[in-house]
Amino acid sequence: CEDCGKSLIGECKLHGPLIRAKDRVIPSRARLTLPHYLTLRVLELRAGNQQILGVFAKKVIQKRTQFGPYVGQLSTKLTCYDESRLVLQVLKDGGKYFLDTPNEDCGNWMMFVRLARNQEEQTLVAYQHCGEVYFTTVKPIEPHTELKVWYAADYAKFMEASAVFIKEESDVSPLPPVAKEPVEPWICSSCGSTFATFALLESHQCIHKDRV
Question: What was the pLDDT predicted at 152?
């Protein structure tokens, strides 16, 4: 204790405990890679404070938007399995490897995307290209909609899975309602004009290019 000049085991009985200052919490690598127009939401809290997360759109995302590549550790054995996420494998140097993500510091935000239980809720398709896995939107994604993925037809054959995954409704547990956040507009960096969709912003930016 610097006040009474004594070395003590535990806190000082005369001057009391020290004021403890905690380090700032640093987001994981996976959370830091999340694009600005996407957000993570807690859908469920399980035992041991385990969070079940989902990826949601904050703005309109156009069809044929590609995300990736998926970041994970190449492994011959899957060490981390979650029934709500896709199992992913790739061909590398003639071998077939799992894309394993045992923790958030060795993956990117794509590890949080949950699998689609049927065609209606599927918004993304997963496929392999040049030894990497990418997700591409199969339809426009509206704000506050969760991104959910399933295998592309050829990749489903590679993964020895069905081309369309349909889970019986009786097995589907309803999700709690999610509070909607304000939709963020797409902003033109040249003039500050705002647009509801990325496509409208692209069309507008063509005007600036023509003027140049």
Answer: 93
